[in-house]
Design brief:
The complex is a heterodimer of chains A (484) and B (287). Chain A has 484 residues and is an alpha/beta fold. Chain A has 15 helices and 20 strands. In chain A, the strands form 5 sheets. A 7-stranded mixed beta sheet of chain A has the order 14-15-16-13-12-17-18, with helices on both faces. The longest helix of chain A has 20 residues. Chain B is of the alpha/beta class and 287 residues long. Helices cover 43% and strands 21% of the residues of chain B. Classes of the chains: A alpha/beta (484), B alpha/beta (287). β18 of chain A pairs parallel with β12 of chain B.
C-alpha cells in the first residue's frame, strides 16, 4: 500500500490549460436572442468550488424578467418555431451539436471550473454526451410521425426547464434537445452554483442564429425557478433535482393543465453476488459511487455484497479507494474533484456523521485534500442498518453504505425497501440471475455487470419517488408532445 | 298469479376476493328511477380503503409476474363472464334510470372493451419497447413495466363502462387496483365484482368499494403505498386537492377530463402506458 501511495503522490501535475477559455465578468439574462440586463438589477457570484474564488457573476431574474422570457418564448413558438418545417428545425439542432462539438474543450474546462468535477469527466463524458444528445434529437424532429403508433404528435408550447448543478450542460442538453425537436420553445434556468456553461451555450445559440426567443436562459435561485413553475403561460415543466423540491413542484402544479417530468433523487442498490467477476465489480462500485464526487442521482450508494465474498470485496474496495486521486479538477490525473458547494459539503458531512452516530464504521482513504475549496474524502460506511439514515437518505456525495446479504430474495427485498427507484446495479456471471434481479428491482435503469452508463438513445428516469417521465431515447419524446 | 317473494340482494364491498361489509357499519340507500329506495350500499371508510390497498399491494407480485398470455386470457374470461350475464347488467342500469337502449349499448361496449384490452396484453410491450443502439459495447433495451397499486375514482357517466374502461388498461399492464365505484350509480360495479370474482383473477388484484369521493378521495390520493391515481370527475377543486395530496409520494396522476367512453377514443394502448414505467437494462458485450 505504501508503495502505491508514494507512486501516486509522485504524479506530476497535468493541469488542463485555461488559456482557451473566455469567462466574462458578468452574464446578464439571455432573452429573445439578446443578453439583457435583469429588471431586478441584481447579480450574484458564481465561484470555483476548488479554489473558492469568484469566476463571474450572473443575473437574478425576477417576476418581470420571467414574464418577459416566457412572453418571448410564446411569441417565438407562435410565430416561428411551430410554423417552421420540422426538417428546418432539425437543422438548427444539428448546428448546436456541431458547434458544441467544436468548442467542446472550452465547455469542459468551464464546466470543471464552475462545478468542481474532474476535467477527465467533463471532457470525456459531460460534453460529448451533451453533443450526442443534440445530434440524436435533431434527427427526430422530422420523424415524429413514426414515434407514436396511431397518433399524431404536436408540440406543447412553452417548456420551463430547471437544471441541476451536478451535470450542468448535460442536463441542459437532455432538456433542450427533445423539447426543440418536438417543436417547443424554452425558458431554461441553470442551477445557481453552476450557471456558466448555460450562459456559454446562450452565446453559442446566438452564433448559430437560432431564432430569437426559441431558447431563453435566465438565472437565479430557487425563487426564480418557482416563478417559472407557477407561470400561467407555460405548458410544460421539466425539473431535475431533489425529491423534496420535486414534490413541492408537483404540488404547485396540481390542478393546472401543465404537463411535467420530474427527475428526482435516488438511492441505488448495487448488488454483488459471490459468482461475480470481483475485480470488475470493484471497479464498478468505485465508478458507481465516486463518479462526479457522488453528485449523481443514480449513484450506486447502497452496496449489497453477498456474504461469501464480502470480506474480499470490501478489502479490494478499500485498496482501490486508496489509489483515487482527489484534488484539482483541472488536473487530468484527478479522479475526484471538489464538492460542488459549501452547502452540499455541509450536508454530506452532517449525514456521514449521523452514520457514525448510529453505529456505522467509517473508512476514508488516506489521501490529502487541498487547503482551500470544498473536499470530501472517498468514504465507506459499514455496519449500518436498513433503517440508518445513510442507507435511507440520498447523500449526493462520495459516501457508500455497505451491507451484506445471503439470498437473492433477501437482497431484492432490501433493494426495493426505499421510496426511491431510479437505478440499480447487479454483478453476477449468471444470466438467469441477472434477469431475475433486473426484472424485480423497481427502478428505471438497471446496470448489469456495469454501472453509470449513459447514452442519448437510452431512456433515463425513475420509478416511485425518483420522479416520472423519461429523458433520452424514443421515450424521451413523449413528455414534449401532445398526441391527437 | 305469482305469490313468490323475491330474494333481495345485499351489495357489499369487494376486497381481497371477498365480499365483505364495510367495517364502519355505514350504508347509503340508492333510489331507483321512480325515487324509491330499493337498495342499500356500503359506505366504505378510510379503513376499508387501507385494507384494500394492503391486499392490492400483496397481489402486485403475483399478478405482474403472470405471463402476458395469461393476463390476456383472464381479461378475456372477464368479458366472457360478463357476456353471459348481460341481461342482469342491462336490467340494473335500467332500474336506475338509464334507458334500455343505452343500457344495452353500455354493456355491449363494456364487453367489447374488455376483449380489446385482453388482446393488448401481449402486444403493447412490443409497440412501446425499444432496443437502444448505444454507442458503447453494451446491449441496452427498454420495456414497459407495471407501476404497482393504482387507485381509481370512477366516473358517474356510464357507471359500468367507465369503471371497466379505467380498470382494464391498468390491470392488463400488471397493476393491481383499488377502485371507487360511481357514486351516483354504483350498483353495477359490485355486480361487476361478481363477474371479476368468477373470472380467475387473483385475490386482491382488483378491489371495488362503494362510497363517497368527497370522503374517500383524500385517502385515495394521500396513501403512501399507492403508485398512481385516476380521477375523471368534474369537481375541479377536488381534482386539485387530489393532485396536491398525490405529490406527497410522487404519485402518477391521470385526470381524464370529459372522455367519452362510448367511442373508440375511450380505448387505446396509451391508457396502458399511463400505468406503465419504462425500465432500461444495460449489459456489456464482450467475452
Amino acid at each position: 500500500m505504501t508503495n502505491q501511495t508514494d507512486f501516486i503522490t509522485g504524479y506530476s501535475p497535468a493541469p488542463e490549460s485555461t488559456n482557451l477559455i473566455e469567462i466574462k465578468e458578468r452574464y446578464p439574462l439571455f432573452i429573445k436572442g439578446k443578453f439583457l440586463e435583469p429588471q431586478s438589477g441584481r447579480y450574484f457570484s458564481t465561484i470555483n468550488p476548488a479554489t473558492e474564488k469568484k469566476l463571474s457573476e450572473v443575473a437574478v431574474a425576477n417576476q418581470t424578467d420571467v414574464d418577459f422570457a416566457v412572453k418571448s418564448a410564446r411569441n417565438a413558438y407562435k410565430n416561428v418555431w411551430s410554423k417552421m418545417p420540422p426538417k428546418e428545425r432539425s437543422k438548427y439542432i444539428y448546428r448546436i451539436a456541431r458547434v458544441l462539438q467544436e468548442r467542446g474543450r472550452e465547455f469542459a474546462v468551464i464546466e470543471s471550473m464552475d462545478g468542481g468535477k474532474p476535467i477527465r469527466e467533463s471532457r470525456d463524458i459531460d460534453i460529448p454526451l451533451a453533443v450526442a444528445h443534440f445530434f440524436y434529437y435533431a434527427g427526430w424532429a422530422d420523424k415524429l410521425e413514426y414515434a407514436f403508433p396511431g397518433r399524431k404528435a404536436n408540440g406543447l408550447g412553452v417548456a420551463g426547464q430547471i437544471i441541476p448543478w451536478n451535470f450542468p450542460l448535460l442536463m441542459a442538453a437532455w432538456k433542450i434537445a427533445p423539447a426543440l425537436a418536438c417543436g417547443n420553445t424554452i425558458v431554461l434556468k441553470p442551477a445557481e452554483t453552476t450557471p456558466l456553461t448555460a450562459m456559454k451555450l446562450a452565446e453559442l445559440l446566438q452564433d448559430i442564429d437560432l431564432p430569437p426567443g426559441v431558447v431563453n436562459i435566465i438565472t437565479g435561485a430557487g425563487d426564480t425557478g418557482i416563478k417559472i413553475v407557477d407561470h400561467p403561460d407555460i405548458n410544460k415543466i421539466a425539473f431535475t433535482g431533489s425529491t423534496d423540491v420535486g414534490k413541492i413542484i408537483q404540488k404547485s402544479l396540481a390542478g393546472t393543465q401543465k404537463k411535467y417530468t420530474l427527475e428526482l433523487g435516488g438511492k441505488a442498490a448495487h448488488i454483488i453476488f459471490d459468482d461475480a467477476a470481483i475485480n470488475q465489480a470493484v471497479e464498478g462500485i468505485i465508478n458507481g459511487i465516486f463518479f462526479n464526487q457522488g453528485h449523481v442521482c443514480c449513484a450506486g450508494s447502497r452496496l449489497y455484497v453477498q456474504e461469501g465474498v464480502a470480506e474480499e470485496v470490501i478489502s479490494k474496495l478499500k485498496d482501490r479507494m486508496e489509489t483515487l486521486i482527489i484534488g484539482d479538477p483541472l488536473d487530468k490525473n484527478t479522479d475526484i474533484g471538489a464538492i460542488n458547494s459549501k452547502m452540499q459539503l455541509k450536508k454530506i458531512m452532517e449525514i456521514t456523521q449521523s452514520g457514525e452516530d448510529e453505529g456505522g464504521v467509517l473508512f476514508q482513504s488516506k489521501c490529502t485534500t487541498p487547503k482551500s475549496g470544498y473536499w470530501f474524502k472517498p468514504t465507506l460506511i459499514s455496519n449500518v442498518a436498513q433503517s440508518s439514515r445513510v442507507v435511507q437518505e440520498e447523500i449526493f456525495g462520495p459516501v457508500l453504505a455497505v451491507q451484506t446479504f445471503r439470498t437473492v430474495d433477501e437482497v431484492i427485498e432490501k433493494a426495493n425497501n426505499t421510496p426511491y427507484g431510479l437505478s440499480g446495479g447487479v454483478w453476477t456471471d449468471k444470466g438467469a440471475k441477472i434477469f431475475k434481479i433486473t426484472k424485480q428491482i423497481q427502478a428505471g435503469i438497471l446496470w448489469a455487470n456495469t454501472f453509470n452508463k449513459f447514452d442519448p438513445t437510452s431512456p433515463f428516469g425513475g420509478f416511485k419517488e425518483s420522479g416520472m417521465g423519461r429523458e433520452g431515447g424514443i421515450h424521451g419524446l413523449y413528455p414534449y408532445v401532445e398526441l391527437s | 298469479m305469482n305469490s313468490r317473494i323475491d330474494i333481495q340482494k345485499t351489495y357489499k364491498l369487494y376486497i381481497n376476493g371477498k365480499f365483505s361489509r364495510t367495517e364502519s357499519g355505514r350504508y347509503f340507500p340508492l333510489k331507483d328511477s321512480r325515487g324509491k329506495a330499493t337498495v342499500n350500499l356500503c359506505q366504505a371508510s378510510r379503513k376499508d380503503f387501507r385494507e384494500a390497498v394492503k391486499f392490492a399491494r400483496k397481489a402486485v407480485g403475483g399478478w405482474s409476474s403472470r405471463t402476458a398470455y395469461n393476463r390476456g386470457q383472464i381479461l378475456y374470461r372477464i368479458a366472457e363472464t360478463l357476456e353471459g350475464r348481460k341481461k342482469q347488467f342491462i336490467q340494473e342500469l335500467n332500474h336506475f334510470g338509464i334507458t334500455k337502449n343505452n343500457a344495452t349499448q353500455e354493456v355491449e361496449i363494456t364487453i367489447d372493451r374488455l376483449v380489446y384490452y385482453a388482446g393488448w396484453a401481449d402486444k403493447y410491450q412490443a409497440l412501446f419497447s425499444s432496443v437502444n443502439p448505444v454507442s458503447s459495447a453494451h446491449y441496452n433495451f427498454s420495456v414497459p413495466e407495471y407501476q404497482g397499486v393504482i387507485a381509481i375514482i370512477s366516473p358517474n357517466d356510464n357507471p359500468l363502462l367507465g369503471l371497466a374502461s379505467l380498470i382494464a388498461p391498468a390491470f392488463v399492464g400488471g397493476n393491481t387496483i383499488v377502485c371507487l365505484a360511481s357514486e351516483k350509480n354504483p350498483l353495477t360495479a359490485i355486480t361487476f365484482a361478481e363477474v371479476l370474482h368468477a373470472s380467475d383473477i387473483p385475490n386482491g388484484a382488483v378491489n371495488i368499494l362503494t362510497g363517497f369521493s368527497s370522503e374517500l378521495a383524500e385517502h385515495f390520493s394521500s396513501h403512501k403505498d399507492v403508485n398512481g391515481i385516476v380521477y375523471c370527475g368534474e369537481n375541479l377543486e377536488l381534482n386539485k386537492s387530489i393532485q396536491e395530496n398525490a405529490s406527497e409520494n410522487v404519485k402518477r396522476i391521470h385526470y381524464y377530463d370529459k372522455i367519452n367512453w362510448l367511442i373508440n377514443k375511450g380505448q387505446s394502448p396509451y391508457f396502458i402506458m399511463d400505468h406503465s414505467e419504462i425500465k432500461t437494462t444495460w449489459h456489456p458485450i464482450g467475452s
